[in-house]
Every structure is written in structure tokens, then in C-alpha cells.
TrEMBL record:
GO terms for molecular function: copper ion binding; cytochrome-c oxidase activity; oxidoreductase activity. This is cytochrome-c oxidase. It comes from the Bacteria. The gene is coxB. GO terms for cellular component: membrane. NCBIfam families: CoxB (TIGR02866). Keywords: Copper, Electron transport, Membrane, Metal-binding, Oxidoreductase, Respiratory chain, Signal, Translocase, Transmembrane, Transmembrane helix, Transport.
Length: 284
């Protein structure tokens, strides 16, 4: 017992030290809460769920220990202890208490989910993200503070993981303006991918012939890791990108350097697959 407590203590120190080195990495202890407009709610749900689970755990472990001690076999006792079966009140309690616990978890999860998935009526920017084997295309639609309208794109290439340092700097990078409402339109050109920015605490599948959405407002400038989170073929592990959250001025400078236009469904493996075809598999 003392040994495992000591181990847990060491693990806690190591893990919290890592979290401080890299603000983008929280490990299992949520550190920096405000990466996006959604992260405080998600962090609270996570932490409070752990507190609730721990309280239930402590109560359950306590009752188990108490039973072991209070009802242990005494000196001179023989035979079976008194047998107890078909105790209706107890069985009702065993059914109701877990149901209530699940209902409480469900209620708060649903509440947070509805809140973060509420679409922006007038987003400041819409970015269309295509997953493709094994990189990404981004189409930016944005009206700058000075009125310039952008309809530009960038196309990413697969990371080349050599085992050497410095690959991160070569990854395709998605730029986001800090403090702006952003709608992500998530699509796929070929197979199912998943758009994941761990520091944003959000991840969503990209499904051929479908559009999924993420709505968020980045609150902190910085560079964050992004990756595909759905095994999508041989080089899935090299489907990496950076997310640069920058000030508006730097953002428009970046957009100025991109090509005008839009990389749409015409570059999909099956350009004729549309939302309504998903259940029937399209016309290929
Ligand atoms: Cu992928």
C-alpha cells in the first residue's frame, strides 16, 4: 500500500512537471483551461466527473472494508455465515442508485455537448477542411477587419517522419485568428479521417460524402499539434499538421500569401458522392 502510494506520488510529480513544460499538453490533469471558448466547459465536465467517480469509489471501498472487518469470521465460529437472498429493498437500491448515477453523468455530458455544438449564426471565419490520404486541404473564407474579402486555399503534404528532430517545423500549418468565431466544415476526399487538435480538447470524424462541424473561438495565440485520429491507411501516422493561432494582422498577412480559389469536391476520389448518398454508398 505504502509502495503504491509512493509510486502514485512520483507519477503525479512527473506528469505535472511535463504539463508545465508544454502548455499545449495537459496530460490527464487539465492545466491551461482557456485554449478555446469551449475548453473551460469540457475541462469542468472532465474534472467534475472524476470528482464524482472518486466520491463513489471512496464510499464503495469504505463499505467493502467495513464489511470485511465487521463481518469477519471470529474465533470459534463454524459453518456458513447467515445467508441473505432475494432482499427486495436492497435489490431496488442496487438498480436505482447506478441508474441515477448514469443519468447525472448523461445530463451534464449532454448539456456540455449541446453548448459546444451550438452553431455560430454569423461566424467570423469559415474554414473548410478536407482530410485526404495522408494530409489536408484548407479553404479559408474570411472578411478581414479592413473589409478585404478572402476566398483562398492551402494544400498540405504528408509529413515525413525520419526520426530526426525538426519535422514539426516542416508540417503543413493551419492558421487561425485569435478571438474570432470559427466554423470548421470537416470533409473527406477518400476514406474516414478524424480532425483532432488535442489542445482544443475536440476531435471529429471526417466522412466521405458528409460534412461535420466544429465551432470554436481560439482564446490563446500559439502553435498547437494537430493530427488525424482515425486509422486511415498506411501513412496515417504521418497525417500531421500544426495549428498556429495568431493575431488578426498576422492572419491576414498569411492569407495574402495564399492562392485565390477553392479546392472543392472535384478533387475527391468520388466527386459524385453527396450527403444523401452516404447510406446507399453513392453511385460508384
Ligand atoms: Cu487520416
Amino acid at each position: 500500500m505504502a509502495k503504491s502510494l509512493a509510486l502514485a506520488g512520483v507519477a503525479l510529480l512527473v506528469l505535472t512537471a511535463c504539463a508545465e513544460d508544454n502548455p499545449a499538453r495537459r496530460g490527464w490533469l487539465p492545466g491551461d483551461r482557456d485554449t478555446t471558448s469551449n475548453t473551460p466547459e469540457i475541462t469542468d465536465l472532465w474534472v467534475n466527473s472524476w470528482i464524482a467517480a472518486l466520491a463513489v469509489g471512496v464510499l464503495t471501498w469504505g463499505l467493502m472494508l467495513w464489511c470485511m472487518v465487521a463481518y469477519r469470521r471470529r474465533k470459534g465460529e463454524t459453518g456458513y455465515p447467515r445467508q441473505l437472498a432475494y432482499n427486495i429493498p436492497l435489490e431496488i437500491m442496487y438498480t436505482l442508485v447506478p441508474l441515477v448515477m448514469v443519468a447525472v453523468f448523461f445530463f451534464y455530458t449532454d448539456q456540455v455537448q449541446r453548448s459546444i455544438d451550438e452553431p455560430y449564426e454569423n461566424p467570423d471565419m469559415t474554414i473548410e477542411v478536407y482530410g485526404k490520404q495522408w494530409s489536408w486541404d484548407w479553404n479559408y473564407t474570411y472578411t478581414a477587419a479592413n473589409g478585404t474579402e478572402y476566398e483562398v486555399y492551402d494544400t498540405g503534404v504528408q509529413a515525413h517522419l525520419t526520426g530526426e528532430e525538426g519535422v514539426r517545423e516542416t508540417l503543413p500549418t493551419i492558421y487561425l485568428p485569435v478571438d474570432h468565431d470559427i466554423t470548421f466544415e470537416l470533409k473527406s476526399r477518400d476514406v474516414i479521417h478524424s480532425f483532432w487538435v488535442p489542445a482544443f480538447l475536440q476531435k471529429r470524424d471526417m466522412i466521405p460524402g458528409r460534412t461535420n462541424y466544429i465551432y470554436l473561438n481560439p482564446q490563446e495565440t500559439g502553435v498547437f499539434d494537430g493530427k488525424c485520429a482515425e486509422l486511415c491507411g498506411e501513412y496515417h501516422s504521418e497525417m500531421l499538421f500544426n495549428v498556429a493561432v495568431v493575431e488578426e494582422e498576422e492572419f491576414t498577412q498569411y492569407l495574402d500569401g495564399l492562392n485565390e480559389g477553392h479546392l472543392g469536391d472535384e478533387y475527391n476520389r468520388n466527386p459524385n458522392l453527396h450527403d444523401s448518398d452516404v447510406l446507399t454508398g453513392g453511385d460508384d
